[in-house]
From TrEMBL:
<dbReference type="GO" id="GO:0005737">
    <property type="term" value="C:cytoplasm"/>
</dbReference>
<dbReference type="InterPro" id="IPR050582">
    <property type="entry name" value="HAD-like_SerB"/>
</dbReference>
<dbReference type="InterPro" id="IPR023214">
    <property type="entry name" value="HAD_sf"/>
</dbReference>
<comment type="similarity">
    <text>Belongs to the HAD-like hydrolase superfamily. SerB family.</text>
</comment>
<keyword id="KW-0378">Hydrolase</keyword>
<protein>
    <recommendedName>
        <fullName>phosphoserine phosphatase</fullName>
        <ecNumber>3.1.3.3</ecNumber>
    </recommendedName>
</protein>
<keyword id="KW-0028">Amino-acid biosynthesis</keyword>
<dbReference type="Pfam" id="PF12710">
    <property type="entry name" value="HAD"/>
</dbReference>
<dbReference type="InterPro" id="IPR036412">
    <property type="entry name" value="HAD-like_sf"/>
</dbReference>
<dbReference type="GO" id="GO:0006564">
    <property type="term" value="P:L-serine biosynthetic process"/>
</dbReference>
<comment type="pathway">
    <text>Amino-acid biosynthesis; L-serine biosynthesis; L-serine from 3-phospho-D-glycerate: step 3/3.</text>
</comment>
<keyword id="KW-0718">Serine biosynthesis</keyword>
<keyword id="KW-0479">Metal-binding</keyword>
<feature type="active site" description="Nucleophile">
    <location>
        <position position="17"/>
    </location>
</feature>
<dbReference type="GO" id="GO:0036424">
    <property type="term" value="F:L-phosphoserine phosphatase activity"/>
</dbReference>
<keyword id="KW-0460">Magnesium</keyword>
<dbReference type="GO" id="GO:0000287">
    <property type="term" value="F:magnesium ion binding"/>
</dbReference>
Amino acid sequence: MAVPALPEGTPRLVVTDVDSTLIGQEVIDELAARAGARERIAAITERAMRGELDFAASLRERVAALAGLSASVLEEVREDLVLNSGARELVARLHARGDRIGAVSGGFCAILDPLGASLGLDRTLANGLEIADDGSGPRLTGRVLGPVVDAAAKRRALTAWAGELGVAEEATTAMGDGANDLLMVEAAGLGVAYCAKPTLDAAAAARIPVPRLDALLALLG
């Protein structure tokens, strides 16, 4: 594949998906396991990632299955997250080059914000989860706060962050694994499919078929 030719020293912006890209898990499935609904919710997640379901509607259906869970499960899941190999190396080397990196997720701020801070990500975007105290402590209500971070929101984040950071459109890179990443991958100067589902794999300009995130550096040159 041909990497967009850029003048030496041009800053790049890399925007990556989170679940099954930056990390090895699907967070919604891990939360569903605490609700005794992993198998049912994982099947919906798989169909959504393949582009067979409307993402926003499927997310709300999956989050509804979490109603009543103690909010403490969010911390439990955060502690169990496994970064895909090369994640820290990728962030460090991009920053050493003067580049920026952000993460957009159809998952949740309660997971991504602390993860982004620990990795030193420059930007993050994910969904809010409504939490209310029913008298026995804070619990998930089963509702998403605000608009869902879907494919269109991911594309808007890529464009907005590039503008904020002074990065040219042709110097943007977007990387993901599922149909929810398709629009930002198509909009970026370089779109990368990372161990991706068929819909995204067929549309991306470049592919990383092995679970090693810092392989992206070889594509960037």
